[in-house]
Every structure is written in structure tokens, then in C-alpha cells.
Amino acid sequence: KEFPAPNSGEIICLSVAIKEQRKGIGKELVTFAERRLEQLGFTRVFLYTGKDNYDAKKFYEKIGYKKINEFPDYHDTGEAAILFGKWLKNS
Questions:
Q1: Edge-to-edge, what's the strand order for the sheet holding 8-11?
Q2: Whose CA is closest to 65, among 49, 89, 87?
Q3: Of 13, 27, 30, 86, which residue is the least packed, with the fewest Cβ within 10 Å?
Q4: Could you give the C-alpha distances from 75 to 24, 51, 54, 79, 82, in angstroms and in order?
């Protein structure tokens, strides 16, 4: 999905079943999305995750994503979200 920043795409949803985690599946999914965004001419990728989703935050940081900003009350439930971003390789 196109993100509201120049030449930027967004990963909207990424999920791996708990029993399948820590097998490299999430990294493969993100790598696939990043490559597709590069093919479409995007130079950056962004994604949101819940502030309290410690495993996801650690995962994204491990694969090169940087915290951009934090948004309180982002979801309808009042949960805060964190925006992560990364420059793509071909940029």
C-alpha cells in the first residue's frame, strides 16, 4: 500500500502463527514485501505496531527498522501505536 510520504510504501498487516514463529517466516514475508515495493519504485517502507507488542518491536528493530514516532490512542481501543520505517536497498 502506498504510504503518505514521497516514494513510500506501507506494510499493513503481518502475522505468523505462534507455533510457527522463530523459524524465519516473518523475515521472509517482510523481505518479499520490501522487494515488491522496490520493484514498484518505492524507496522507503513504513509499518505500525502496537506500543505494547514487545516481540514485534524487537523483530522489526532486528531486521533494520527504526522507530519514527509514537501515536497515543491510535486504535479504536485506545491502544498506542509505533511507526517504524526503513530505507529500501535500491534507494
A1: 8-11, 44-50, 81-87, 66-71
A2: 87
A3: 13
A4: 28, 11, 17, 5, 11
How does DSSP classify residue 5? Answer: S
Contact indicator for 65, 47 with CB cutoff of 8 Å: yes
- Cβ atoms 5, 48 nearer than 8 A: no
Q: What is the pLDDT along the chain (91 residues), one digit of tens a residue?
A: 667 788 999 999 999 999 999 999 999 999 999 999 999 999 999 999 989 899 999 999 999 999 999 998 877 778 899 999 999 986 5
Show the cell assigned to 71: 501515536
Distance separating alpha carbons of residues 45 and 49, to the nearest angstrom: 14
Pairing assessment for the beta strands 8-11 and 44-50 based on DSSP bridges: parallel
Distance CA 43, CA 16 (A): 26
Question: Could you tell me the pTM of the whole model?
Answer: 0.87
